[in-house]
């Protein structure tokens, strides 16, 4: 699955059939010629962040119907519709009826400046007609609301403003498309200690899109046995050359952890998995494998997202953030509030993508299980401190058959390695104390798991939640 591709956007620009020949012989040409230039400027702008499907301005019913069919056949993520002036609305109404169910943004572009002074001049009169996008926008809005299509939005602004709105809308629509084509694998079951994290697999498939596959521990055991030690040694060597290794690491247990991690990724790949949700505190896993795999992903270039504790909601949050930001996302659990310093500490044991910042990685012993009776007790893992900077923090869980998002933006501050066995960092909100922040969060009812990723994508998350009929809570 290509999480980082550009959004694919179908663009329909509707012009006035009866205005097409007006302005022949004038300095700026006919209405049709002017609209062709205007359209190209729009497409050039939108192409900066999206792959555009566009065949030129639409004037006839048949052209509108052909556009609707093309957008469906080319599997665009969303559609942008613009009235370029007043226009007959027969093409627009036909388009609304024929366009299959997909995200649709109706927008109107306002010119940055106007130079209309005397419409007795034919050139300026045609410019006056050409500038009347507000007339068409109002006309279009009536049918837009009467059809009442789901996953639709409406907006007016300058070209730069519309482009910024479309960028957010299209990014969310791309995420919707990717989710509908994704596969989740759960290895091997929900976390029996955390019932609040359970979700309905049928609901996830019906309302969001991903299929959920259930992988077994015995599949993992069989794959471990098939994984050659020569390959394991090669991966272990590369890890040790790239990352700092703590003094108490047992190298045989390091190989066992790498082997189990690689095997886990292989059984996930056989199912076409995009999001792997590992119940890494399952006693069946420990009894048969002897450790929890500690180096996912073994390949820095993989797009497979792996999360711990059998939490599909937390996995979806991490997966969605990775595709919206185009950056590596991580899985966290806020541990405690440091009241005196005005921050909170968060992280998680188990798999966490550690490849974004190599200098923040130490290969270390899993102290949490070092004194357990499992075969590879204390097997090493990638002990990671999350890189500093602005992060979107997203929670997802299910309530009454509907998914819920609770999202905010926090600052990850520079942090040293100090919580053994937990990838971690310290965080603070820009305006809220940690007590105020978590008071606002828990009022909505959450679990303890969140995804984090660099940047601020609250607008994109809100647009996606609207498209998928999620409950969305934004904490600014």
**Order of neighbouring strands in the sheet with most strands:** 11-12-17-16-15-18
Mean of residue pLDDT values: 95
Rg (C-alpha, Å): 27 Å
> How many domains comprise the coordinates?
2
| CATH class type of the largest domain | Alpha Beta
Q: Based on the coordinates given, report the CATH architecture of the largest domain.
A: Alpha-Beta Barrel
- The third-level CATH topology of the largest domain is L-fucose Isomerase, Chain A, domain 3
Sheet-strand content, in percent, reads: 15-25%
Content-based structural category: alpha/beta
Spans with pLDDT under 50 lasting ≥5 residues?
none
Structure described in brief:
With 476 residues, the chain is α/β, with parallel strands linked by helices.
Secondary-structure topology with pairs:
Elements: E1 8-14, H1 31-46, E2 51-53, H2 61-73, E3 78-83, H3 90-98, E4 104-110, H4 122-130, H5 133-147, E5 152-158, H6 159-181, E6 183-187, H7 201-207, E7 211-215, H8 217-226, H9 229-242, E8 244-245, H10 251-270, E9 275-278, H11 283-289, E10 305-307, H12 312-325, E11 330-338, E12 343-348, E13 361-364, E14 381-384, E15 389-399, E16 402-413, E17 423-428, H13 434-442, E18 450-454, H14 458-468, E19 471-475
Parallel strand pairs: 1-2, 1-3, 3-4, 4-5, 6-7, 6-9, 8-13, 9-10, 16-19
Antiparallel strand pairs: 11-12, 11-18, 12-17, 13-14, 15-16, 15-18, 16-17
Give me some keywords for this one.
19 strands; L-fucose Isomerase, Chain A, domain 3; alpha/beta; 476 residues; 14 helices; single chain; 5-stranded parallel β-sheet; Rossmann fold; 2 domains; 23% strand; 6-stranded antiparallel β-barrel; elongated
